[in-house]
Structures are given as C-alpha cells and as structure tokens.
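hi!! sorry for the late reply, been swamped w classes. u asked for the two structures so here they r. pasted raw, havent cleaned anything up. first the sequence of the first protein and right below it the tokens
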Amino acid sequence: MHVMLPPADSTHTLFEVGVAYDLTNEIHFDQPFDTTAIQPRQQVSEADGRIAALAAAHLDWRHARASYLLVDQLALIGPELIREQLHANWRHGTATDWRWLGGADVDYRHDTSFGLTRDDLQGEARLGAERAPADYSSSLRMLYRFDLGNSQQQGDARIYPDFYLHRAQISYAHFGTLGSEWSLGYTLGYRTFPDTSARNYLDHQGEAFGLVRFASGGEISGRGFLDRRAALSDSATGDRFWQGELELSLRQPLSPESWWLTLGGSFFGTAYDVPTPAFFHNVLWRQSAQVRYEAGLAWALQGALEAEELRAPGNGGLGDPDVSQDALNALREEYNQGAFRLGFERFGKTTFFVEPGFGRRHYLMEATPGHDLEAHSSYWFVGANGYADIRLARPLKLRGSADYLYEFHDLSVDDLSAIYLAAELRYALGR
C-alpha cells in the first residue's frame, strides 16, 4: 500500500475578503374561501435576500509528517445577517503508533431575515486518541465529544431547544489491498435539555461499513447504522425509538476509465415505543441506477433513474384507520415517487455542475376535489440544482449555487415553486 506523505514541516495560510449574497423565494397559491364571490386563486410570494461582507482565513500547519493543525474561519457581516464559523482539527504524533486527536467547531448566527430575529449558537469540542501503524493499514480511534446548542428567536417558535450532548466513541477500521476497507464503531450519547429535563435521553449507536474493490475497477460498498434512543421520561415519546439505516452500492466500469454504472439501494426506518400522531412508525426505501461518462479530467455526463417509497407499517402503530383518525392520517403520508435526473460536470479553471430533473410523487391516499382535502395531492415536479467555481483572475474567485423546484399538483391550489440562489465573490490577499 503506497501512502502519499505531506512535507515534513510546512505552514500554509490563505486570507480572503469579498461579498456574499443569497436569495430565497417560495411561491404558493391561496384560494379564498371566505366569500361567496367566485375569485381566482391568488399567488403568494415569500422572498428575502441577504447581502453581507465576507472574510475568510485558512491555516494548514504540519510537523514531522505526524502532527498538524487545520483551521478554517468564515465571517459574514451584513444588514440582516451576522455569522461567525470556526473549524479546527488537531493531531499530535508520538514516537509510538499512538497519536492525540482534537478539534473544535463554533457557529454563531444573528439573523433578522423573513421578519424574524434569530440568535443561534452551536459548538463542539472533541478530544481523543488513535492507534495506527506507520502504513495506516488499520486504525483504532477513541473520542470524547461535547456539543452545545443555544437558540433564541423573536416572532416565532425556536428552531431547536437548548441542549448539551456528551458522546463517547470507539471505532476500528482496517484498510486492505486495492483500497478495500471495513470499519466498526459504537457511540454512547447523553443529551440534556436545560429548559426541560423530561426530554433528557441516552443514545446507543452502532455503525458498520465495508468496501471491496476489484482488480477490474469495480467496487461494492455497504453501510449499516442502528440507533436506540431512550428518553429517561416516559412522556418524551418522540425520543423513545429504534432507528435503522442500510445502504448498498455497486459501481462497475462499462469501459476502461470512461463509462461507469452505479446501482444503489437504501432503507431507513423508525419504530417508536409509543407511536403518536406526530411520531409514528415509518419506512423509507430508495433505489437508483446511474450511468456516468467521464472524459478524462475535462468533463463528465451522467443520467440517473431514482425510485422512492414511503410507508407507515401497521398503520404507523396507531390502530385501525376505520376507527382511528390518527392511523388514517399516517396512511395519508404514504407515497411512491419516481424521477429522472441528468447531470453535467466540468472540471478545470472553471468548475461547475448542473443537474436538471423531473418526476412524479403519487400519494396512495390522494386528496380529491370536494372529498378528502386533508390528504396530500399527488404532483409532477421539475427542478434543477447546480454550483459553479470560477477563477476570474489569479486572486479573484466567484462561487455560486442554485436550487429550483416547481410542483404541478393534481389539485392546482397546492402548486408550489421554490428557488434558492447563493453567490460569493472572494479576493485572496495572500497564501
């Protein structure tokens, strides 16, 4: 196994200033029902844009091919948004196979857009150790993590309650020939809520991953995740559940280094100890088939078929839908969805990706005019997403992203359109 080693000792810095802008607009339709006059539906647009000055810094310090410190900082200051993000990762090597690991993340936001005033603070600190041989063929890692969250909001309910989260993690990974690998991990978490101890809970999470690569260039990978969350109070029904996730993927070359076929499938399900109208049993299945063409390092084209099914097993655990309105509402959430997406990607001085797509979501229990208006209405949708990273000059760079979605519902009053745009213009001051 050949390992690319960084320089023995090096320090790299990058400072950037610029301007950032984002726009969010959701368009829906209101049908007036409070008058006897016949009136057409009314289009309602909820748009808001934010502009802010930007300052970013990056530090990459490495020592003796065993220790490093990576720091990324981003500050945004504008009339509606003030945000500070800081990410740090640290590793300290020793004379043995053991090394120390650490890091911290801070994210503060003061946001007055959409007629609301939000003050959010999220932070994380981590400290641990890792044992790995010089060729990094295996890794035993133990970490302690501490997270906190604080949210204050005027004009609406808070995004999330204040919390403290303690986590102890242990994981082992083995890296074999041809890049194959497997890993196992376990995390014990304890989360407390200063505002209400009734929501305090213990969390047990297990995760397994495996990747097998073949000499032909193909690979098979799989990941499994199991979570048992147990609230200390029986009243916290939303935090008493089993949750599982399984992902499988097959990637196979159809021609040497040009055409690729990727088949994937996933399962995600949650079973609650005591189902409620807000938290009931659910299962989400996804399948996909993608063909991708790569023209060397210049550009790539891909097309994908996707399918998705949401189910509420056992009527969500809420009883007989003939006598239980809650069970009936759970069944109203079930749907089948199919989509086709076409993506184009370009690499180099100008890098961009664009992916238009269309599809249909069919609810198994549909809303119909004059009948079950409490159910969802099925719809066709079209959308596109993309990003661009353009180097205008040596120190000047433009970044942008966009997402667009339009839903054509069988009940036109439910039609919906949403768009999100973001752009950053950055000027590098030094390296």
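now the second protein. again sequence first, tokens right under
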Amino acid sequence: MRWFIGLFVAISAMPLFAQEKLNPLLGAEIIGPKQTLTELQEYVDPRIPRMPDVKEGKQWLEQAEMLRQQVLDQVVFRGEARQWRQRDVQIEWLDAIKGGDGYSIKKLRYEALPGLWIPALLYEPEKKGEKVPLSLAVNGHDGAGKAAPYKQIRCINMAKRGMYVLNVEWLGMGQLRTPGYRHYAMNQLDLCGTSGLSPFYLAMARGLDVLLGLPGADKDRVAVSGLSGGGWQTIIISSLDTRVKLSNPVAGYSSFRTRLKHFKDLGDSEQTPTDLARFVDYTHLTAMLAPRPLLLTYNSKDNCCFESGYALPPLLDAARPVFATLGVEKSIRSHVNNDPGTHNFEKDNRQALYRMLGDFFFAGDKNYQTDEIACADQVKKADELNVALPAMNADFNSLAKSLMEKLPQNAELPTEKTAAIQWQKERRKELRDITRFADLQAAASKVRSETKDGTSVTYWRLKVGDAWSIPAVELTRGEPKGTTILIGDAGRAALGGEAEELLAAGQRVIAVDLFYFGECKFPSHQVLFALMLATTGERPLGLQASQLAAVAKWTKESFQHPPACVAVGPRLGVVALVCAGCAPESLQSIAMHKPLGSLKEIIEQNKTVDQMPELFCFGLLEKCDLRQLAALAAPATLQLIEPGERAKKEFNGLREWYGLFGLKCDPLAGVQ
C-alpha cells in the first residue's frame, strides 16, 4: 500500500475541475431521498414494545414495578448517576417575597446532583390544614421558564386552595438558559457512559424531596403537572416515582409508534433517551400510573405537537384496560381543549386540573372552588422571581468534562505482542457490544452504467442486511490496481476531488453513503430519527460501521482483494476505525482526512448530538478513545491527512504498536 500512503501525503487541495466533473456523477440519485426514512420507520416500529393484554390487575402491578426498576436501573441511573442517586437533597432557603392574598413566595435552590443547583419558588398557603397537599409545577420549552404567566397563575391558584406548590426551573429554560444546558448537550454524558437523562430525572425527584420535607406535607396528596416538555417531565416522574399520587401531563407526549408517523411529535434528547424503548413505550408509562389518578390533557389544534386527535387515543387504549382491571376506571380521565385548541395550558386546561384536584385531593370539601381564581394582577416579572445561583453552577458540559478526565478506563496499550493480541480480543468484544455492531451481508443490484470522459461509472443499490439500502457509485479508469471505498461527511456527491486522485493512482473507487449521510440522510427532523434508533437499543455508529463492513465484504468478494478506505471528515473517520475494530480484516488500510484527535474534543468544544449524532454513542469514551480505536483497527494500517495538533499528539507512537504485529506503518508519516 505504498501508493496509498504516498498519494495522500501529497494531497492538499483537490482540483476544482475534478470536482465539477465527478461530483455530478457521484451525486446521481440511486435510492431516493425518502428511502432511508422509510426503512428506519419499518426497522424501528417492531422494536417498540407493545402493551400486554392485561387481564388481571395484580399481575400488571407486578409487571409495572419490574418495568419501573428496569428503566431506573438500565436507562436513568447508569454510570456516575448511580452515585448521584444516593445523595440526600441539599436545600438552601433564600429570601421571601410578597405573594398575594392567601399565599406567600419563598425563594430557594436545591442541588439536583453534585454542583447542579435548581432555582425554585415555593408558593405557601397562609391557611393550611393539618396535612397539606403538595404540587410540583414543571414547565416545558418556554424561555420564560418558571416566570411564564400561565405557570404562575397555576401555582397561585393551587396555593390559594391550600396547597404547597413548588415552581421549579427546567434545564435549559429561564435562569438555566445557557449553552451548557442545551438539551442536545445531555448526550455528552451518554458518551462518557453516564445517563444524560439522569439530571432531568433528579431535578424532578429532588423537587419532590423538597416538598415532602415541608411541615405538614401530606405524602398521600402529591400532584405533578406541566405543559409540553413539562408534560413529558410529568409522565416520566409520575410513572417512575410512586410518591406522585396525581398526574396531569398537558400536551406532553405520545407513543413512540405515533411519533414515527407524526414527525412533529419527535422529541429532543431527553424525550427519546438512549435505550428507553428497549423496555417501555409511553403507552406503558401511561398505564404505570394505575391505580393513581391521571388526567391526560391535549389540544385539538395543537400548533406544536401532540394533537389530541391522534396522540390521545393510543394512550387511552393502552391504559384504560389497566385501570379497569384494578377497579378504578374513574381515576383515568382525559380533557381536550378546543378554545384556543393550540399548544397551551391556559384557563380551560387549568380548570380541568382544578376539577381533578377537587375530586381526588379535596373530596367532600364544600368550599373547594373549581373555577379559576382571578390573579392576573399578581403575576410577577422574571427578575422579581430570579433566584441566586452559584457562580459555577454545573451543567451538562461541565459534568461531562469532569467525567471525561478519567476516561477511557485502562487506556494504556500493551507493549508486548501476546498481551496486545489478548487486549484486542477483549476490547473488540466490548466495542461490538457498545456500538451494537452486527455482521451484515450486502446484496448488490446494478442500477445502470455509463462512460463519461474516459471514466466508467456503475451505479449500485446495495441491500445491507434485511433492512437497509446503501447507494454506491463505482468509478474506474483503465485496469484498476486496487479498490478503495470512499466515504465523506458531506456525502459522496462532494467527493469528486478525492475520487479523481484515487482514479489517477489506478484505484477503483466505490463511493457510498452510509446511514445518515448524503442520500441516506432524512428529508427532515434529522437527529430526531437518529435518537429514535438509539432509544430502541441500536446505535447509529454501530449501524454505520456495520454497513461499511458489509460494503467492504461485498467489495472483497466482487473484486478479489480487500479494499482500502478513505474517510473524508472527522465523523466518518471514527466510523471507519470502529468498522476495522469490530470486523478485523474488513479493511486493508484507512486514510482519515482532518480527523479528530480525541472524542474529548466533542465535549471540550461543547458539541451537541444534532451536529454529529453517531459520535455520542453511549459509553464509547468510557472504553475507547480514538487512540484505542486505532489500535483495535490493526491489521488495517492507518494514515492521517491534515491532522490537527491534537491528532498528532494522540496518534503519535502508534508505529511501535503496528510493529508488534509485524506491520510497517506510521499514521503520521509525512505529516509536518
């Protein structure tokens, strides 16, 4: 492979004429823009758990508890989150401010997990019974956060009815609206092997701790309510924490199966967390409220998401039989708002909540008022409700930076051949498990052929496994000396320059688009579908690497020699390494253009999952950084093209590693 190394060391800028000539050939449509989306829908749907046929209430309660523990242990509290879970809540009470007639407001902050403080407001009724009902008020994707007027009015009304109400800020909103709390940044924790979902969950669970620690708190009357992302929070905490006794999610969620058809329901990272759908769908979470009272509120003309017409029926169909078997049919209710019918928690929806509270928390109280108590003049400005926070309050990014300091575990490479071989064997198994790598076969169908300007072009449609279609363009000029698979972050249509260089060196070029790249990208809602794949237990990174290995195997069988691989861009460079690490002998060599030097760069630069979804593979950095991935790739040799200083540092010294296997390779050969 000397030609390979010498050629790419010399590359600096690709000729514009080559791009103009070859890019149109490379970018010609083969599978169409919606094929991958259709295949993902067909792939994911059967992997989403179905509700069982519930015929006996006790049996369901046992199953619900099993599901609850599975989700908590295997989704929410993984990695360092197990330790965060064990801590007692820390509360700092601050100043009090004037509320209105019948209630006061106390400012506080509480520690959801080490170093991450949540600002909150306690609405305290002036007249309290011996036991005081409790309510946790959460909010959704509203920049006003806890100061949103409709939320303040809800809190005030419940306090006026004699309830303690805790108005909590949501991560990424209100006072916590900074880049480090962006919801797509939570996956930085996933990369480190700690659940990014856990800060969301602990923020709610610690809020319940605060409420239940108040004087006279009635543990038998604990409510949670919220709109949109707050509705998601409501169903999550209510289904998984049985301290919640009444739940009112408002326009907050739908079944994963519903979301596959109604794209505006596709949720952010926390709403589609890694591996949740291995165990439950949102239908299960809804049914897991039984026998506790549940009010499902939806809007008929919702201009955001979760329209009542399609979102509500599957949830009721799943949960009502469960409530019926337990003899509590009246405990599950629904309310559909028609005026205004848009995405809201306004008066009509709030009054539905007050009626629910009256029936279950204030039954028999003749003085209880179900109509909303006018209080618009008591709504305060955001700065009046601001709560002092530590100057260095933790966020997703700072937590991930702290976690990555000790990663990957057991990072040192063996220096003796026998130990190196054993190390590869053990780590390859771990890598296959982490990435969910699968051994797939590729079956090729020729679409068409043509010759243009002396270049022969064949368009292939590769069926990889039973589920996926991969477009491939084969380019040759004369009699090829070898074959190179060409992949790029910008898609194959942008690889004309690289293809020209390979053709000039006598290579057959197989330019392909893997899952989520080029023609295999989704027409819309890009990252949300990648998250959907991960929530079922699959990993985009593993799928891409599996597809590349299948293409490599087809190439080898078709042309009688193992292929090289050129990966243009930092993302697909990692995919190529994972492919070689999981499927030894699949690739003869790998050239990585402008590679990352470390997965830690993703966290250091505060990248989010929408920018490079496959690189946030759960637990990858916990076991392997790029240096370890490169070591696993041997016997495939490696060449870096235009590496940054970090890559030069991290890949330095791998020549000695290759020497253990009798290979002459220096990934940095020729790099200045």
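hope this helps!! also noticed smth abt the second:
The mean pLDDT is 96.
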